[in-house]
Structures are given as C-alpha cells and as structure tokens.
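Sample pair:
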Amino acid sequence: MTRELKAAGKVTLSRVFFFRSSDLVAETAHGAAHDNEADEDDRPLYRFRFATTKDGYHRIPGRILGIDNDVLIVAEGIAPDRKVFVAERNISIFRRIAKLKPGSENVVGGDRVDSIAVDAFGELLEIRRPVRGRRQRQHRRHRDQEAF
C-alpha cells in the first residue's frame, strides 16, 4: 500500500474502495504496542477519511466507491461496516445500486423521499449472504413456499 500511495497517489482496497493520498488521515506503526508479535504486525496501519457526517447522514464521496454520485447513509441505524459496501467476491453494493438509480445520490435511511428504507436495505444485505447447511435447506423450502 505504501508503494502504491507513493507511486500513483492512490490505492484500491477490496476492489471497491478507491482512496487518494489526500484521503490519508494517519499512518501509524501497527505493531508498535506489540513488540513480541509476528512480523506482519509491524506493517503500518492506515486510516483514510471515508465520510463526513452532517444533518444526520454519513456522506461518502462517490469517487471513493467508484460511482458518480455521493452515498448518504443515515447516521443512526446502520453501522458503516465493510459488509454494508462489499458483497461476496469483492462486489460493490453501491456500484450496483448506482446502476439502478443513475444520476442521483444514493440515500439509505432517514426521511428523504428518495431514500432506501433502513429495513429494506438490511434485507438486501441479508439476501446477498450465502446460507449454509441446514439453514440453506430451510431457506430454499421457505423461498419455494413463497413462490406459490
């Protein structure tokens, strides 16, 4: 990551997040507090400016997510975890949403008319997660019953 930031002035994480050097807030020695840990802990820890919070929303610049318009996520109700932005196999959730709603901000939660309801967004996140074993069979049975 250090090489990419120095050489190109930008870095891509999980094929979904696109940061510039100007987004870098801090670079610290990750292993500084753990002198006896493995060498991998000696790698630097990077902190990037990801969003700003204003008027009850986290605003993420679209360029960070590889889309044209900003993403607004209600500050209360959705934790901005990686799983909110990245589906299995490093697929960008908001890039897919942006294709469905071109030319407008992507808003999740809050009272704006153009927003995706928090509950509906949560259901989208649950749908994309793979279900394994017994839960998978139950899920299929339930899905098949709903189809009739």
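Confidence is low (pLDDT under 50) at residues 142-148.
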